[in-house]
Amino acid sequence: MGSASHLGYFSDRKGKTPNHLPKGVFFGLAGLIAFTAGAIVFGQVTGLGVVKQELGAPVSIRDLMITRNASGHVVVTDAATREDIALYAPEAGGFVSGSLRAFERMRQVSNVPFDAPYRLIKWESSAVSLSDTGTGERIFLDAFGRDNAAAFEALLGPQGGNSQ
């Protein structure tokens, strides 16, 4: 097979001026990039305009085992006492069941046993997080809305879980 010039592209371009980016657009893009880099450095150095989320200390912590049994029910068990906390039917459980599917995929990829406990934490800032002790992944449940975070927060128990 011949070269690219054999296909006729270069011969069609002979004598034509190349397509250039207009100088105004080039300098505008360069200025935007410089401004963005300057704003990032300014924010990091001075702390102005930087949003920081302070979680504080954990208020309550509970280790849970969340598993799916043969009939498709999601079973939530306290990892320390082995006491069943909740049982969700296959079509129920909403966010808890959906989260389990996501964590199961992460565990499968990481070759982590499915019966490793999860750590549910309520923070001083009232944020709720769910950590996978097997993979080290942590999800802040408030990002999915207060109702979804409340579904997990209810698993901490009436006293808010084990206070630390």
- The coarse overall form would be elongated
Topology pattern, helix = H, strand = E: HHEEEHEEEHE
Structural class call reads: alpha+beta
Proportion in helices:
25-40%
Integer average pLDDT: 82
The largest sheet is:
7 strands, antiparallel
| Beta strands, count | 7
Determine the strand fraction and express it as a percent band.
Answer: 15-25%
User: What is the count of DSSP helices, taking H or I runs of 4+ residues?
Assistant: 4
Low-confidence stretches: 159-164
What radius of gyration results from the CA coordinates? 27 Å
State the distance separating the first and last CA atoms.
Answer: 73 Å
What does this structure look like?
By secondary structure, the protein is an alpha+beta fold. The chain is elongated. Strands 1, 2, 3, 4, 5, 6 and 7 form a seven-stranded antiparallel β-sheet that branches. It has four helices and seven strands, in the order H-H-E-E-E-H-E-E-E-H-E.
